[in-house]
Amino acid sequence: MLVTFTTEAYSDITMFGEHALPLLKMMGHSGTVPSAIRAEDVPLALNLLTAAINAQRSAAPLEKNQSDEPVVSMASRSLPLINLLTAAAKAGKHVSWK
Description:
alpha+beta
């Protein structure tokens, strides 16, 4: 499953559901797809997401997969969504995903 995040303040972001759903839950959302966050709730979702990512960064060592290549961290995967939420919060726009 692919999840596409949309707001009028930023370009659409598409990611695999296996990465998008945990990010939605970090934002304080149930993980329901499709859904949306009202403009007035975007700053809280952004704060929750960045706090969860920062907590993971400080707690988890760099992982490796079986081929000894670094695994892409959730912090790295969250950057486009953090940028989208930041733009939406600044512009006072809602965020939706499907």
